């Protein structure tokens, strides 16, 4: 019987891994559709590039740093060399259970997607080489330690010590409200401040393909069931409740955003529907195992409505968060994390009790401290990383590349064959010339 259960759990985790893996492509499409035609490929390559860099680092030191035995028992970071060259990830567990290899692969994707999310804040203007360096350094100094804080639990026999948020603070973060979304959102704010505003800010280039963005959002929605459901690490009631809550919140989030958008702007837009969906998914990520379906609806509609208002804060405060990573992931992540303290249902799988269910403020203060700790640590360290990169190599693309578009200027290719924009003097061997030709035509009204 135990072997059958272990086989079912492993099969579910393999399926969840596959679901989460498509989120990399979904994010590339989601972001790629929102930028102008001349920066579409650069945006996609930044997402895939982050995935590649983090994947390599995860195999070498990341898994050990995130899930290894806590150095000194302090709960701050795991032993970064614990799994280096070890056979621990190659051998099956001694008793029927989840193979460590699939758990490591599943968590690798979490790290890669967290870093890739930050790219949306710096679209259209960051050097690709500097982005790749930033992605690697940030993963080592920020994501791996924070993942240890949040996701690494003490072993049952006490032989392995985990992170302080999971074990000492006992805050609930089921699938990454702090470690993924608050982490990426506050890093996006810090990096965009150091990088500076685009030349066209506050006027943003119009999204070149909203159908592409909606397709990307749909793929992210599909993958999110693996992201949240797979975090149960088993095929059973826990994962089933998580999937239902994820679905409920998503529906409510779209409704919340579209209602606010219609009230404020007079239109309910496709971009609003996609953004409301992602906002709700962000909010329910930490809470999906702690609330009832009614609680999930509340989190979804609150996040959808609040994030719709929050995306305009960049204009009030003057930071250029190109694709609203701060407004959606930071704000949605904070709301989802803190709302657990109010809406946690003791009958839900996490079995914690929020303020509205008679639990007082005990869980609420734990959630608030966890959110504040990640906010403070990640903001400071990201500022330092970005400032050092700016001092020693520069992180901003030059003005000419920014104006002509990074697809051709940096990568030497274009997302689409734009025959109506070609001129006889433009050849594939002259990508910058091609970019200038496209830009001159764009000035006449074609983006």
Q: Can I get a quick summary?
A:
By secondary structure, the protein is mostly helical. Helices cover 65% and strands 0% of the residues. It has helices at residues 2-34, 40-67, 100-118, 128-151, 164-169, 177-195, 210-229, 237-265, 270-284, 293-310, 313-317, 325-343, 362-392, 399-404, 406-411, 431-443.
Describe this entry's structure for a reader.
By secondary structure, this protein is mainly alpha-helical. The chain is built from 16 helices and no strands. The protein has helices spanning 2-34, 40-67, 100-118, 128-151, 164-169, 177-195, 210-229, 237-265, 270-284, 293-310, 313-317, 325-343, 362-392, 399-404, 406-411, 431-443. It is globular and about 65 Å long. The relative contact order is 0.14.
Kindly state the percentage of residues in helix. Answer: 55-70%
What's the count of strands? Answer: 0
- What general outline do the C-alpha atoms trace? globular
Task: Please state the CA-atom Rg, rounded to the nearest Å.
Answer: 22 Å
Total helix count? 16
| Low-pLDDT stretches | 422-447
| Overall mean confidence score, pLDDT | 92
What is the subunit organization of this protein?
A: single chain
Strand content: under 5%
Largest sheet at a glance?
none
Q: In whole angstroms, how far apart are the ends?
A: 61 Å
Secondary-structure element string: HHHHHHHHHHHHHHHH
Q: Structural class per helix/strand content?
A: mainly alpha
